[in-house]
Amino acid sequence: MATAEPTRADDTGTGSSTGPRIALPETGTRPGTGPGPSGSSDGGAGRPARFRAAFLALRERLLRHPVLSVTALAGVLHIVWFFTFANSGGDLAAQDAWAEFVGRHPDSAYNLAWYGGMHPVSYSVVSPYLMSVLGVRTTMMIAGTVSAGLLTLILIRSRAVRNPLWAAMAGVFALICNAISGRVTFGLGTMFALGAVAAVFCWPYRWRYKRWAKALCAAPLAALATMASPVAGLFVGLVAVALFLQKRRPGAWALGLAPTAVVAVSAWLFPFSGTQPMSFGSASLPLLYSALVFVLSPRRWKTVRVTAAVYGLAVLLVWLISSQIGSNITRLAMLFAGATLVAALPFTVRKSWRWYTAVLALAGFAGWIGFKTVDDIVHTAPAANWSRELAPLVNQLQQVGAEKGRVEVVPARSHREASALAPYVNLARGWNRQADMERNPLFYDDTLNSANYHEWLQRWAVHYVVVPKDEPDGDGGQRERELVRRGLPYLRQIWGDAQWQLFKVTDPAPLAEPNAVVLRAEQGEMTIQVSEPGPILVRIPYSPWLSIVDAEGKSLKAPQETDASKHRPEGTPKTYDNVNGCLTQTEEDADGDRWTVLLAPKAGTYRLAAPYQLPRGTPCPDELKQSAKTR
Q1: Fewer CB atoms near the end CB (10 Å): N or C, the chain?
Q2: pTM (predicted TM-score)
């Protein structure tokens, strides 16, 4: 909240203000509160005095170590969250699924259990692996607790903030609401983002000339923030833009270059496209609070005010232009608008219009994120059948061989199916709104009917449809459930109980054709039996990481140029020995799909997986791609 690179980031700087940042109560005894004369037996008056003295002593100790105190408070609140609201629905369902996938397949770059195939890196570079090691909820507790401590440190080290402890309390409230909503990946990214900001704004005064050291601290943390959560990386980028506009270039480069590089490399190596919706209602409150922070913050808080203006412009652009960001951009305001307004409150004249506006804004902020948090608790808590009565459904799916195709589960409001069933069968969908809107728009554009639902089941090689008892997700889920339950000529119910209905698609499209049978489709690998050599269409969205592997999961050699071809004159078509097979992609079809094509040199068993390796995958050379074209 300073206007230039911090000049006194700790208490070792020059100037007369060398005492603690938070005023401490006097420790001496006050008249009438000290102990009575020796031998006094006035216990009734002595006990309240002793309690008050003990409270003041505890308060003094806590105020002497505010960062530690706020961190401890945040830790306790996150432990309470763990034992009360940390269920398995909502965003936690997605994070559970990703953590379990990378735990089972740590070397796989492509998850076949959702949407035909998704790169874990398209969700997060580091979060799934860290959550797999530490546990999803443990990661949230650590990230939220450390974030509270870092935010308190930033507020206390900023000489411009008069009430850092109260502002930190507002930040703790927002962080615990974020935990209750289950945003573990974003919480982890926020922790690294706050660390990067602290490295820039809390750099010790005695090291003020060591800017290279500051950059070496801030840049890796900014990169980790983006690798943990692209949304958190975006927010670091907004701060970098604000610093750049103030011509504070060292801090801007330290915070801005690393996130940009992470996003660019991730998009190049792990391509992904999708759209996150954002209505005007979702954009209105972030726009309002960016304006309130800009207006109510003191004029000398240039970094805060410029960041608020940049953030407001970003919200407006995201609302106007469809992108993968969408409503995720609201999270910056939900986390830090309250703390900023609390910090700005002492700079307003009591009972002035600015003071009343700030108080009303704080009340509105508490209502906004409080309502959103309660709404998440109510609507994302999974029904008991997802944990207590799932075994009969899994048993039926295994008996009918559902692992040889895909399974569509009418999405529950809690999205618990994304993590509960993904270990057993490959789902036609999952829990990623951007991917769902990109690949399955019929559930969002009010066009769902019997005909296009049948086409969609064929398109994704769905063999079975599951209808849970609990409330479906949104209007699309409601329409899908009504459509299936009403009865469709291409669906036949083969099993059901009080919690589930299982339908078989009577004319399913094969996952691989022609002259091929899928023996098993797992999260990390698909096994195909090919009866004749030639091109095989595999209904997996193409990824450059897909490889042909052996029984041990090791990638087999791609086609090699023949010795005779190497000695031919330049410009002569090359020839290759295709011993193990190779993979390429189809042309984009009317639905925007680019499927995988296996060019099989002989009959036999082929295994498709996506191990991390460079060069990526088992691609077909250009000369062989022509023969791999299918209808």
Answers
A1: C
A2: 0.88
